[in-house]
Q: What sequence folds into this?
């Protein structure tokens, strides 16, 4: 049977099932196949905080959304074109996100009275006509899977577990994905358990053949590779890219990297990843708590390592006192906050941008800290290097604000040429830097470099540099304890001035205004870059002018940011918080920045921002 | 009876080729403790004893928390880090793990180590990080002007407990043994010879050494340990522990085995003091050899490098699943 092949420009697929159904893995594999095929892509995993929430319930549904296209894309997509639902709860939790005409592939196996009831269905949606507006494929994927792996002698339960691979095989056929990487992956992953390995491979192939031979699937689709800059690519999540950025910072500085961390969602993957890279001289320390994590990192930084600590919002609250100490000690330290919904424990697996003010002000005293925020999963690599660069050059703790969306989302990464990555010079102090009145050479730990105001990084083991520092106020220069009023005023202002001077080394704001005469500027920071960019493209396709700028350095701001803001009639700022950057900008530049704010634990969609921007433009022109 | 307790805690610390003296270890800072404070005696003992280690001065680091005793690092001409309340063991863990060539000391007090920093203290001891912790126990909060501490006796009347404290105190030695610290000792500020002897053993111990030092605070808890300092009283009350020597209390006697792998006997000895100080054991309760956290961490890094070779960044970034887009 030859089947029709239809050409598409882009598709959004969402895999949904119980948290134990392996939907994240299925999504990851489909992503990998899609990446190696050469489409541009963007992904959005969405899972509950519970590891195995009660089976078959709405709260236990885990999903993975993937947007792929034959052109450059910026977001994981607003509404899925295809939903794969492995049980009634997965169907019910996701169906309202679909538009009429979307394809729905359902595993019918669990559509029993009991499971329907557990998902909150009074009637079976597969039979009551409620799905009539969709292209429904109701298939007993579980039974087909069990049938296809019969030969391997697994229990029924174990056999049924391969159903996600059957679904993956079916979708892989439907969209003409290359299967080699998944075959290799399964072979590797289950190398020690041949029966399970063979069953998963068989289920994967059976899914593919099922699509190819069954009449139910009359059409398959082709999405051509996207034109991309020449080079080598791979797909990375934000957490992975961030981890690699830290390893790269170690290589480019010649310093060992020391991570002190306490497990916390969604940052733990950075700890897991870095623990694999000991051969790069990376040490990971799983501490007894968040405080010890940063304490050990600071201790290592004092000894000449790149000290790093990773956490999420609640962990930052615990680390605040040590960040303050690092401000006072003026030692390099990188603090990574993968933001999640708050306050308190909040929404551990969901995204938010609500730690900006905590990063900015969450310490006692005047304790300024530079802040860097990556704008996409791949940008996490560069942001990590940038955070280390600032920390080392200015001898200061630096905050890196990622978020749950960047951490777990993924996209293709054009691999950098190692030689082009910035070199980071630790510039350790090696000799006394001061002449005393009696003509002796002495070491003054708070004698500053005039341009950056950075103090010397004098690590133990360097003869002649023995000195004592601490969290008590120090006298300018020699660094002994000082409670002098004028000295304290000077030190407070100097620490602030030092952080302000970071702006000398950060690039001006890049404004994207293709028409050159936009009156509305949409500003963003962090992970909103994708949806804002996608919305701007749509607005421009409507023939309207709009300018977009994204702030990567949140403290200090780029020197020209105020001028940029003042150049436009109106500035709109979407944030996944109640207006934190807007507050800072209004205070700093006296510009009437207008916020657009959502805190639903989910990223903005391009269509809602398109709506906001077109409405604003309409209001401005009337 | 001897057990091989090598390698020494100082194994990887460079040795100085010049003879140093107490003066070399004295910083130019004016000491700011109250007159008569026990801290002076300990400082003098440490300054005099450090030269005997023969180490390069620049490779010695003192890390402290907050409290009277935590000012200690300022007065020693070594590297010193006066940190924040309770966190010194955590900071020292990062430093000692990342730098095998340093001799790392933690100076702390009963409030700093046992109250606000209790968590870090027990975890440092169970991990057995190669650091030496001097716990100055004056059984009171000095720097905040006289509140009861986690080692104050029940019923203690202080500024914050006018009706008497109802807190039950820690016995720091019992606590350390419970956390299975590999070196646990107690000494008294006034006994310079004993103090020095214990410090010497602690410094060369590989792993976490916890030394409780009974320290008098003449301002807020004067005379807390007087019964142990009076010559006649001391003879009756102090139980001096020496590994391999007979300990006699009343009609009981046994040979003290500080090297016993099981800490139970040491724990039992630590319970001799029921809080009344009728019987107070001092000396080394426990001194056993167990792989240290920092040695093992460094060994893993070393092994990874020797097995897989130094990391190749380009290969790491490219990973397994990459693809190439041609011009
Ligand atoms: S308050 Fe007590 S412990 Fe503190 S310095 Fe004075 S005497 Fe010493």
A:
């Amino acid at each position: 049977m030859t089947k029709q092949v239809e050409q598409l420009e882009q598709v959004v697929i969402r895999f949904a099932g119980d948290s134990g159904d392996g939907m994240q893995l299925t999504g990851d594999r489909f992503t990998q196949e899609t990446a190696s095929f050469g489409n541009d892509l963007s992904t959005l995993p969405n899972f509950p905080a519970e590891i195995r929430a009660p089976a078959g319930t709405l709260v236990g549904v885990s999903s993975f959304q993937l947007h792929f296209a034959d052109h450059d894309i910026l977001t994981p997509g607003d509404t899925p074109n295809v939903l794969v639902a492995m049980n009634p709860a997965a169907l019910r939790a996701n169906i309202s996100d679909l538009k009429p005409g979307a394809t729905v592939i359902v595993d019918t196996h669990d559509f029993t009275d009991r499971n329907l009831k557990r998902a909150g269905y009074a009637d079976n949606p597969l039979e009551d006509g409620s799905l009539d507006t969709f292209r429904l494929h109701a298939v007993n994927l579980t039974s087909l899977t069990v049938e296809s792996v019969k030969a391997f002698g697994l229990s029924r339960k174990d056999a049924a577990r391969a159903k996600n691979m059957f679904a993956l095989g079916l979708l892989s056929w439907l969209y003409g994905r290359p299967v080699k990487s998944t075959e290799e992956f399964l072979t590797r992953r289950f190398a020690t358990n041949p029966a399970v390995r063979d069953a998963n491979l068989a289920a994967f192939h059976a899914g593919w053949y099922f699509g190819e031979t069954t009449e139910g699937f009359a059409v398959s689709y082709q999405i051509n590779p996207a034109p991309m800059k020449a080079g080598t690519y791979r797909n990375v999540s934000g957490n992975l890219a961030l981890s690699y950025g830290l390893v790269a910072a170690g290589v480019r500085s010649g310093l060992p990297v020391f991570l002190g961390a306490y497990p916390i969602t969604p940052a733990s993957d950075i700890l897991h990843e870095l623990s694999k890279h000991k051969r790069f001289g990376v040490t990971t320390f799983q501490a007894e708590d968040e405080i010890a994590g940063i304490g050990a990192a600071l201790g290592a930084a004092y000894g000449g390592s790149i000290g790093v600590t990773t956490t999420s919002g609640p962990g930052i609250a615990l680390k605040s006192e040590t960040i303050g100490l690092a401000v006072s000690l003026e030692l390099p330290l990188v603090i990574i906050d993968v933001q999640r919904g708050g306050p308190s424990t909040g929404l551990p697996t969901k995204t938010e941008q609500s730690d900006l003010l905590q990063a900015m002000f969450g310490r006692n005293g005047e304790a300024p800290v530079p802040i860097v925020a990556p704008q996409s999963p791949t940008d996490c690599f560069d942001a990590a290097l940038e955070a280390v660069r600032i920390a080392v050059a200015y001898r200061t703790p630096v905050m890196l604000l990622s978020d749950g969306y960047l951490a777990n989302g993924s996209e293709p990464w054009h691999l950098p040429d190692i030689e082009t990555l910035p070199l980071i010079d630790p510039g350790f102090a090696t000799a006394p830097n001061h002449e005393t009145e009696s003509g002796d050479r002495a070491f003054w730990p708070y004698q500053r470099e005039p341009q950056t105001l950075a103090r010397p990084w004098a690590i133990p083991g360097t003869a002649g540099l023995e000195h004592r520092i601490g969290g008590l106020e120090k006298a300018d220069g020699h660094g002994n304890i000082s409670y002098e009023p004028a000295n304290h005023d000077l030190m407070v202002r100097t620490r602030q001035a030092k952080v302000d001077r970071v702006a000398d080394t950060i690039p001006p704001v890049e404004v994207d205004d293709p028409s050159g005469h936009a009156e509305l500027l949409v500003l963003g920071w962090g992970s909103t870059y994708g949806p804002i960019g996608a919305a701007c493209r749509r607005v421009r396709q409507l023939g309207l002018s709009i300018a977009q700028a994204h702030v990567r350095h949140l403290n200090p701001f780029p020197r020209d940011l105020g001028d940029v803001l003042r150049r436009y009639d109106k500035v709109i700022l979407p944030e996944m918080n109640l207006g934190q950057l807007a507050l800072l900008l209004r205070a700093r530049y006296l510009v009437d920045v207008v916020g657009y704010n959502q805190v639903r634990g989910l990223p903005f969609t391009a269509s809602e921002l398109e709506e906001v921007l077109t409405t604003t433009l309409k209001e401005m022109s009337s | 009876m001897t057990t091989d307790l090598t390698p020494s805690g100082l194994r990887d610390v460079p040795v100085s080729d010049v003879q140093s003296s107490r003066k070399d270890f004295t910083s130019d800072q004016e000491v700011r403790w109250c007159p008569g404070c026990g801290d002076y005696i300990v400082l003098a003992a440490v300054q005099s004893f450090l030269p005997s280690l023969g180490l390069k001065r620049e490779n010695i680091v003192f890390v402290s928390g907050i409290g009277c005793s935590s000012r200690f690092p300022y007065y020693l001409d070594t590297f010193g880090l006066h940190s924040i309340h309770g966190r010194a063991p955590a900071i020292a863990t990062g430093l000692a793990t990342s730098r095998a060539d340093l001799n790392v000391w933690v100076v702390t007090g009963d409030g700093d180590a046992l109250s606000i920093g209790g968590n870090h203290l027990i975890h440092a001891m169970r991990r057995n990080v190669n650091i030496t912790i001097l716990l100055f126990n004056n059984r009171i909060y000095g720097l905040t002007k006289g509140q009861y501490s986690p080692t104050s006796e029940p019923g203690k009347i202080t500024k914050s407990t006018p009706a008497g404290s109802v807190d039950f105190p820690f016995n720091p030695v019992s606590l350390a043994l419970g956390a299975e610290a590999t070196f646990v000792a107690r000494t008294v500020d006034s006994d310079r010879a004993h103090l020095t002897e214990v410090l010497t053993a602690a410094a060369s111990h590989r792993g976490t050494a916890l030394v409780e030092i009974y320290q008098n605070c003449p301002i807020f808890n004067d005379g807390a340990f007087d019964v142990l300092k009076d010559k006649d009283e001391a003879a009756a009350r102090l139980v001096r522990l020496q590994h391999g020597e007979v300990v006699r209390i009343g009609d009981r006697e046994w040979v003290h085995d500080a090297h016993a792998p099981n800490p139970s006997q040491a724990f039992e000895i630590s319970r001799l003091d029921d809080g009344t100080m009728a019987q107070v054991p001092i000396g080394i309760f426990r001194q056993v050899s167990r792989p240290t956290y920092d040695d093992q961490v460094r060994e893993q890094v070393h092994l990874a490098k020797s097995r897989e070779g130094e990391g190749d960044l380009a290969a790491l970034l490219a990973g397994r699943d990459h693809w190439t887009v041609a011009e």
